[in-house]
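An instance as discussed:

___
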Amino acid sequence: MALHTNYLITTITIMIMMVIIITIIITEEEEEEEEEEEEEDEEEEEEEEEEEEEEEEEEEEEEEEKEKEKEKEKEEEEEEEEEEEEEDEEEDEDEDEDEDEDEEEERRKKKKKKKKKKITIYIYLAPWHIMRLYN
């Protein structure tokens, strides 16, 4: 009977050790799976972060492009305004020149009229002088 009990004890201990070994192996596999899942999760998170960063960079680039376009539009508007002002100034200058020319023409006309008057006066006075000389 002692042999029988020893046999039972050894078989039971072997079975318990096998169960312990199996559970250790299973837990190691589970831990490895968990680690792999964690690594995959971390990789996915990193990829998501990279995608988010890329999206943010793209958005920033778009905003910068929009700002540049706005600045260009503002500059173009300013240039157009300056051109319009220059054109207005040129028109004003042209008008001033036209006015100056008109004034000069009026002065010339007045001078001509004055000269004509003088000429007519001399013409009318000339016969009297001639008559005086002869008389």
Observations:
- The chain has a mean pLDDT of 81.
- The CA atoms of residues 91 and 107 lie 23 Å apart.
- The radius of gyration is 57 Å.
- Helices lie at 2-134.
